[in-house]
Amino acid sequence: MFEKILIANRGEIALRIQRAAREMGIQTVAVHSTADAEAMHVRLADESVCIGPPSARESYLNKAAIISAATITGADAIHPGYGFLSENAEFAEMVADHNLTFIGPAPVHIRTMGDKVLAKKTAKETGIPVVPGSDGAVASEDEAVKIADDIGYPVLLKASAGGGGRGMKVAQNREQVREAFQVASAEAKAAFGNGELYMEKYLGKPRHSEIQVLGDKHGNVVHLGERDCSLQRRHQKIFEETPSPALNAGQREEIGAVVVKAMKKLGYDNAGTVEFLYEDGKFYFIEMNTRLQVEHPVTEMVTGLDLVREQIRVAAGLELGFTQKDITFEGCSMECRINAENPETFAPSPGRITGYHSPGGRRVRVDSGLFSGFKIPPHYDSLIAKLIVQGATREECLMRMRRALHEYVIDGIQTTIPLHMAVLSEPAVINGEYDIRWLESFIERLKTEK
Question: To the nearest whole number, what is the mean pLDDT of the chain?
Fold first, then answer.
């Protein structure tokens, strides 16, 4: 087992990884930018190293600085968390080249699933159902029109190397395909340095459902159920729950088995999440995240497993300590992502926390690095906390989440807590009858009512 792990991340996820490591008797090294010098993950680590100025490019994305920090502190492994370098195959290879262990999947799997076209091809070859669309990258406007005519309108053009909704355009007819091709390609090139696009059939009102998997270096793979992540704004999740109110036990078991079989075929190890669009009883692969997910706590709440602990064990070469038959699911769990944003305009709201009170009580969990007096820097993602609850039933979960949101006090900045309270009072959400476009329609409705 490792003696010291460097955590190549910041905020709540860095703190989350620290907690798992400490409970395993492993020392931790925190890296930080100058803007995060007073952050909680820095304060609580056994050691800390400043790796650069506030800009993420010069600090948390600075591969050489992170490797150097691991070397000078004597760390023997690096956990990348999520975001930043967590899905960077080159970084994973650099870690191995410096005789360190990357706590994540093999670089080949990161690289394969990081290329949207190759990921879709791989999914199809391993038996995972995919959305009808192009077999690979679309080379030109004319080819885009031909493929769209074949699969039927509307269609979706997507950046091969992208994510987060950038380089993604919907087209309803031939003329729009040509326009969308030009705009999406230019946007993708500007955002990712790669203008390559692929095409998929555009689904009308799908849900976003994802399967959590864990594998080890000995060929063992299990799934830990699904999470419904359909409440999204601009393709960014704000709320997740498990089990999905849209699936029954048979569907859950069937898609879980399909994913496990595919991951075994790939030889995948460590944590990963296979994401689907789900509509009319059918699953369609959209991507795989080869890392720990932001929303992993809802899975932990219903399974009783510590996913970070399992990541560390697997990376150290140990076998999973359980089989698929050993995994049980207790009740329901939900997570609200709390962002430092105006709840109406979604403008970032960095600043100093003047008052802080975390909700508590039975089956309530808060993953956050916030404390009274902490100054939230303007340089990074606006996610500042995750509020997670668990209950015996979905109704109990909703009631507990509303109560916990009401208790949560974060003074000095604006947060999205009011938005969550409004969303969780809506009949469509209460009844579990929402899709990936519901939230944006709800937000537009709120604007018109003001």
Answer: 96
Task: In whole angstroms, give the CA distance from residue 254 to residue 166.
Answer: 32
Q: pLDDT tens across 351-391, in order?
A: 999 999 999 999 999 999 999 999 999 999 999 999 999 99
Beta carbons within 10 angstroms of residue 419's beta carbon: 24
- pLDDT score recorded for residue 226: 98
What pairing do the DSSP bridges indicate for beta strands 236-242 and 332-339? antiparallel
d(CA 241, CA 74): 39
251's tokens: 């569907």
Annotated active-site residue 291? The verdict is yes
Strands 27-33 and 47-52: parallel
Class of residue 234 by CB neighbours under 10 A (exposed 0-12, middle 13-18, buried 19+): exposed
Q: In this structure, are residues 357 and 408 in contact, taking their beta carbons and an 8 Å threshold?
A: yes
Residue pair 107/92 in contact by the 8 Å Cβ criterion: yes
> Which domains, ranges and CATH numbers included, belong to the chain?
4-103 (3.40.50.20), 132-201 (3.30.1490.20), 207-449 (3.30.470.20)
Kindly report the number of other CB atoms within 10 A of residue 176's CB atom.
17
Report how far residue 354's alpha carbon sits from residue 405's, in angstroms, rounded to the nearest whole number: 18
Alpha-carbon span 37 to 448, nearest angstrom:
43
Rounded Cα distance between 120 and 198, Å, is: 10
d(CA 98, CA 65): 13
Q: Are 321 and 396 in contact (CB under 8 A)?
A: no
Does residue 107 contact residue 89 with C-beta atoms inside 8 Å? Answer: yes
The phi and psi torsions of 111 (rounded to 5 degrees) equal -70, -45
Which residue type is seen at 301? M
Positive or negative, the CA dihedral 160, 278, 172, 238 is negative
Rounded to whole angstroms, the Cα distance separating 240 from 226 reads: 10
Strand ranges (E), 316-362: 332-339, 351-352, 355-357
Residue 395 CA to residue 437 CA, distance in Å, equals 23
Contact 22, 4 (CB under 8 A): no
Cα–Cα dist 23/18, whole Å: 9
pLDDT tens digits along 172-186: 999 999 999 999 999
> Distance between CA atoms of 389 and 404, rounded to whole angstroms?
8
Active-site hit among 111, 291, 313, 400: 291
